[in-house]
Write a structure and sequence with these properties.
With about 60 residues, the chain is of the alpha+beta class. The protein has one domain (about 10-65): Multidrug-efflux Transporter Regulator, Chain: A, Domain 2 (Orthogonal Bundle). Helices cover about 45% and strands about 15% of the residues. The protein has helices spanning about 10-20, 25-30, 55-65; strands at about 10, 40, 50. The protein has a three-stranded antiparallel β-sheet with strand order 1-3-2. α1 crosses α2 (about 25-30). The protein is globular and about 35 Å long. About 10% of the residues are buried.
Length: about 60
């Protein structure tokens, strides 16, 4: 895979950029279970959100139509 599209997207800000929404929306969707994200590292309260690029692309495709 090319360097421009890493297989894992890390952080609410980066995920929001990919989805075209705010980082707060990403956090809210994650909290409601509507976004298939996980917590990186130890999974603690301050751990960044991570999502697999394929899952994100599938979600974007589903949102479009």
């Amino acid at each position: 895979m090319s360097g421009n599209n890493p297989p894992i997207i890390r952080g609410a800000k980066a995920i929001a950029h990919e989805l075209g929404c705010s980082p707060r929306t990403v956090s809210r969707l994650a909290a409601n279970g509507k976004l298939p994200v996980k917590k990186a590292f130890s999974g603690g309260r301050t751990s960044p959100l991570v999502i697999n690029r394929k899952e994100l692309d599938d979600l974007k495709h589903d949102r479009k139509g």
